[in-house]
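Hi all, long-time lurker, first post. I run a small reading group and we've been trying to get comfortable going from sequence to structure in the token notation. Rather than ask abstract questions, I figured I'd post a concrete chain and ask someone more experienced to write out its structure so we can walk through it together at our next meeting. Sequence below, copied exactly:
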Amino acid sequence: MAKIRLDEIDHQILDMLIDNTRVPFTDIAKKLLISAGTVHVRVKKMEEAGIIKGSSLTLDYQKLGYSFIAYVGVFLQNTSQTQFVLERIQQIPFVTVAHITTGKFNIFCKIRARNTKHAKEVIFMLDDIDGIYRTETMISLEESINDKKRLMHHIFNEI
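-- Answer (accepted) --
Happy to help. Here is the structure in token form:
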């Protein structure tokens, strides 16, 4: 598939959509001094090219009572058990992200919990999965950087 060329208008559209995926195309158009139809066509082009994949909603987990974040490194008895273990991990709703990794851990998970007691229960759920022989946990004290734009701007500058 040919690489799609994005221009400055596309970059600005993406910039605004990253800030708020629900911003109306008419608002983007007004800020960029173009028509809403142009915004629609450009967004559709980026969706068809796979640059934009859906849109997402950001929840305030703290307000929902899930402010405790921990990262759990998972050690497997055998790497051949990876898929089996991932299927079991996926059944635990408090595990919000899981990566197959190289290095120290076989799988690296992000969990959200209500408090330390709840986090302990979630970690024990992980420990109980057949194929996991141990875990190592790191508690997040604060999310200091969560910037979706910096890499995008760097990529745009490379193009």
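A couple of things your group might point at:
The first strand starts at residue 68 and ends at 76.
The longest helix spans residues 36-48.
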